[in-house]
Write a structure and sequence with these properties.
Blueprint: H1 6-14, E1 23-25, E2 41-44, E3 47-49, E4 53-55, H2 64-72, E5 76-79, H3 85-96, E6 109-110, H4 115-124, E7 132-135, E8 141-145, H5 147-151, H6 160-163, E9 171-172, H7 177-187, E10 191-195, E11 201-206, H8 207-214, E12 232-235, H9 238-250, E13 255-259, H10 266-278, E14 282-288, H11 291-299, E15 304-307, H12 317-321, H13 327-338, E16 347-350, H14 358-364, E17 369-372, H15 374-377, E18 386-389, E19 392-398, H16 403-408, H17 410-415, E20 432-436, H18 441-459, H19 464-470, E21 473-475, H20 478-484
Parallel strand pairs: 4-5, 4-17, 5-12, 6-7, 9-10, 12-13, 13-14, 14-15, 15-16, 16-17
Antiparallel strand pairs: 1-21, 2-3, 7-8, 10-11, 18-19, 19-20
Helix pairs in contact: 2-3, 3-9, 7-8, 9-10, 11-13
The structure holds xanthosine-5'-monophosphate (XMP).
Length: about 500
């Protein structure tokens, strides 16, 4: 249960809405040091996070490359929806298959296939692996053919059965990744096919993947129960959304994000109910900014809620439409409403974060995770190429409600309820621009997570839940704000977690 946060309660009573730079966290007695705090949290009811960081469903932020790296670092990426259903589903599949804890549909060959035809198929399909289970007609497993068998084969007109190995190590259907790892280590086998009672192949483990999951990666990777990286994907409203959800579920997407600019609407709630009726998958719904909206979404079956109307770096919603609520107050109001329910619904604070210190602030206000756009947009793994301007390296970043994004994609228009609007009659709610190139995601997140850890250390809390419950605020004036930033000095050296006027961002 979150304690009442006096500054935010008073502001709420006065109808005063506060945001990140209006407040700072109070320090408190600490027992646990920053490097020992637990950063685990939840994005939705059934989907966990090892760090409370989620990437925005935007076409300049999250496609499969960033989603893979972010899940490896413990967070989750939301693949944007300005993609055809096929493209979005295949992006999800690329994330899910990146580790391949359990390969559920192994690519197989038949024993009477010619070696030459398998080799040319491998090349044309760009397979990165070299071992294939071998089936006889009728799909019974009869052998394995590996990279070595191909390498030492001098006559490509031979059949696979002439070069395959029939000394098979197999395990029964349902074998866990832990048992598979032990068995493969003991028997020194790189491939472990799983077979059912009829001897038919049902799945397969590859040692390289299993080892990666079981060793170095295990503590940081955010993986599902099959050992595959977690990923979310955004959908819109209506019939098209239902079709998208079906296709994404087929690819084992972990979370659906029902992604609109105003979620407290009949059409969004109807879509949510239809998705929940048809699928047993977690659905995070957004965006909202008031507690009453959170209550309606929870009652309609949301498994997570996304908060943020107008705080984003590329948003012009507040200027164009005159609506929205400064983010710290929006988070707190929704968190207080969500607490009334027995079912605990994770809240994601979406947009407006500019520095790592904003992460603990969002969490102490009641969020379970934060969604970032601009703070991730300039990374190596984000879509798009590096652009050179004014002697610096940049990457494109644009609002999904910008003219560029809406002209390109029906999904972006739909997010702002302008799906049927003619291209020259659009009313944009976002802008397009450049953000500084930031290098590799892992280096960038190291600083963000480091800032969060330090904040938790100062606040004297050992976990994300404790930060939500106990973290408390002071109100800051503009004098406090300017005191908070470096002052009375000409900064001569850049810092990896503080950007200055020298590099064009402040
Ligand atoms: P940041 O501040 O992290 O914000 O860059 C990312 C979030 O902003 C939202 N978003 C928009 N909001 N107009 C808006 O009003 C837009 O064009 C737009 N595009 C994205 C979105 O919630 C994202 O996660």
């Amino acid at each position: 249960m979150m304690k009442n946060k006096l500054v935010l309660e008073r502001a709420r009573e006065d109808g005063l809405a506060l945001t990140f730079d209006d407040v700072r966290l109070r320090t408190d007695y600490a027992v646990v040091m920053p490097d020992c705090v637990n950063l685990e949290s939840k994005f939705s009811r059934n989907v966990g996070l090892k760090i409370p960081i989620v990437s925005a469903a935007m076409d300049t932020v999250t496609e499969y490359k960033l989603a893979i790296e972010l899940a490896k670092l413990g967070g989750i990426g939301v693949i944007h929806r300005s993609l055809s259903i096929d493209d979005q589903a295949s992006q999800v599949a690329r994330v899910k298959h990146h580790l391949n804890g359990l390969i559920e549909k192994p690519i197989c060959v038949y024993q009477d296939d010619k070696v030459s035809s398998v080799l040319s198929r491998r090349e044309s399909k760009d397979y990165t692996f070299h071992s294939f289970p071998v089936l006889e007609r009728g799909d019974k497993l009869v052998g394995i053919v590996t990279g070595n068998d191909f390498e030492f084969c001098e006559d490509e007109s031979l059949s696979i059965k002439d070069i395959m190995s029939t000394q098979l190590l197999t395990a029964p259907e349902g074998t866990s990744i832990d048992d598979a790892f032990r068995l493969m280590c003991r028997e020194k086998k790189k491939i472990l096919p799983l077979i059912n009672n009829d001897g038919k192949l049902v799945a397969m483990y590859a040692f390289k993947d299993v080892k990666r999951i079981k060793t170095r990666s295990a503590e940081t990777y955010n993986v599902d129960t099959r050992g595959q990286l977690r990923v979310a994907a955004a959908v819109g409203i209506g019939e098209e959304a239902l079709e998208r959800v079906s296709r994404l579920s087929d690819k084992n997407v972990d979370v659906i994000v029902l992604d609109t600019a105003h979620a407290d609407t009949k059409i969004v709630i109807d879509t949510l109910k239809k998705i929940k009726k048809a699928h047993s998958i977690d659905v995070v719904v957004g965006n909202i900014s008031v507690g009453a909206s959170a209550e309606r979404l929870i009652e309609a079956g949301a498994d997570g809620i996304k908060i943020g109307q107008g705080p984003g770096s590329i948003c012009t919603t507040r200027v164009v439409a005159g609506i929205g609520r400064p983010q710290i107050s929006a988070i707190y109001d929704c968190a207080k409403s969500a607490e009334k329910y027995e079912r605990s619904i994770p809240l994601c604070a979406d947009g407006g974060l500019r520095n790592s210190g904003d992460i603990p602030l969002a969490i102490a206000a009641g969020a379970h995770s934060v969604m970032m756009g601009s703070m991730l947009a300039g990374t190596e793994e984000a879509p798009g190429k590096i652009v050179f301007a004014e002697g610096l390296q940049w990457k494109d970043y644009r609002g999904m409600g910008s003219i560029g994004a809406m002209e390109k994609s029906e999904a972006a228009r739909e997010r702002y309820f302008q799906k049927q609007t003619g291209k020259n009659q659009l009313v944009p709610e976002g802008i397009e621009g450049l953000v500084l190139y930031k290098g590799r995601l892992s280096d960038v997140l190291f600083q963000y997570v480091g800032g969060l850890r330090n904040g938790m250390g100062y606040a004297g809390v050992a976990s994300i839940e404790e930060l939500r419950e106990r973290g408390d605020f002071d109100r800051m004036t503009s004098a406090g704000f300017s005191e908070s930033h470096p002052h009375d000095i000409k900064i001569t050296k850049g810092s990896p977690n503080y950007r200055t006027e020298l590099d064009g961002t402040r």
